[in-house]
């Protein structure tokens, strides 16, 4: 039996037997870990409430044959307690957890940057200084960048030209008139500027954006993320958003 300690965020849980639970955690040093928490569904459990989604925890585990076993848990910050009282922020946070889970495919493969992004995104949601939709879109864009899928936003994704006219998911971002494929979206220049601000963390510019550009940005970012994941983010259906601009939909032949 090998004991190890790490810091992590609970992504999801599932029942196991009558009293146990399987917990999926994105940790700071180890990466994504799936562990068994024995007896946490009993009312007498010492740390059941500490192993709920959104919880930022310090924990100790020992390695098992198929699943590791959680032996100690201490709460660093229970983000869920603040988020459950605010539906838009709760649903945005749920989409963050699912995205982090989907982008960290391999278990026990270090994913420090994704872990730090998740903690930072949850903290920003709880602090409430920015609209939940903006925080979520910033998280999506930065997570894509960490995974190597950042969209081209300043120059054509295909030829590098600076005179861009459209956004094509299949091409990898903005494209010029010559490279523009059929069915590409034609967002406002302000929408692309907002995406750049969110990717860079320029919150003054993002907070000053207009609602219509935020809606268009959300549609494009969500479509781009789900294209690269090859499947939809189920949590997005619950995120409070205004109706997306028609140009934000998946292009013909997209993967859903």
Description:
The chain has 256 residues and is α+β, with helices and mostly antiparallel strands. It folds into 2 domains: 3-80, Nucleic acid-binding proteins (OB fold (Dihydrolipoamide Acetyltransferase, E2P)), CATH 2.40.50; 130-248, no CATH class. It contains 7 helices and 7 strands. The chain has helices spanning 79-83, 87-103, 112-127, 132-146, 189-200, 203-207, 211-229, and strands spanning 3-16, 20-27, 32-37, 55-62, 68-78, 164-168, 173-176. A 5-stranded mixed β-barrel has the order 1-2-3-5-4. The chain has a two-stranded antiparallel sheet with strand order 6-7. Strand 6 (164-168) and strand 7 form a beta hairpin. The longest helix is centred in the C-terminal third of the chain and has 19 residues, at 211-229. It is elongated, with a radius of gyration of 20 Å.
Share of residues in helices: 25-40%
User: Structural class, please?
Assistant: alpha+beta
What characterizes the major β-sheet?
A: 5 strands, mixed, barrel
| Mean pLDDT reading | 90
Number of helices: 7
Strand line-up of the largest beta sheet:
1-2-3-5-4
Number of domains: 2
Show unreliable segments: 242-256
* Gross morphology: elongated
| SS elements, strand count | 7
Compact overview of the structure:
The chain is an alpha+beta fold and 256 residues long. It is built from seven helices and seven strands, in the order βββββααααββααα. It folds into two domains: 78 residues, Nucleic acid-binding proteins (OB fold (Dihydrolipoamide Acetyltransferase, E2P)); 119 residues, no CATH class.
């Amino acid at each position: 039996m090998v004991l190890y300690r790490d810091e992590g965020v609970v992504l999801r849980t599932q029942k196991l037997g009558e009293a146990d639970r399987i917990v999926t955690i994105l940790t700071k040093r180890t990466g994504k870990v799936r562990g068994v928490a024995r007896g946490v569904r009993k009312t007498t459990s010492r740390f059941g409430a500490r192993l709920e989604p959104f919880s930022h925890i310090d924990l100790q585990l020992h390695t098992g044959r198929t699943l590791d076993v959680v032996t100690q848990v201490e709460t660093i910050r229970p983000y869920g307690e603040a988020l459950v009282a605010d539906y838009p922020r709760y649903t945005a946070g749920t989409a963050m957890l699912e995205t982090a889970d989907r982008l960290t495919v391999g278990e026990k493969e270090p994913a420090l940057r994704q872990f730090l992004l998740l903690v930072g995104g949850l903290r920003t949601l709880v602090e409430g200084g920015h609209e939940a939709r903006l925080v979520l879109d910033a998280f999506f864009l930065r997570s894509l960048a960490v995974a190597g899928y950042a969209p081209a936003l300043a120059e054509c994704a295909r030829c590098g030209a600076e005179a861009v006219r459209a956004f094509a998911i299949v091409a990898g971002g903005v494209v010029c008139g010559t490279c523009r494929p059929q069915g590409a979206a034609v967002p406002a220049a302000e929408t692309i500027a907002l995406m750049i601000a969110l990717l860079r963390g320029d919150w003054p510019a993002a907070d000053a954006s207009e609602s219509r550009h935020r809606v268009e940005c959300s549609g494009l970012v969500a479509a781009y993320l789900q294209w690269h994941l090859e499947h939809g983010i189920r949590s997005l259906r619950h995120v409070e958003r205004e109706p997306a601009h028609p140009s934000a939909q998946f292009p013909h032949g997209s993967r859903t």
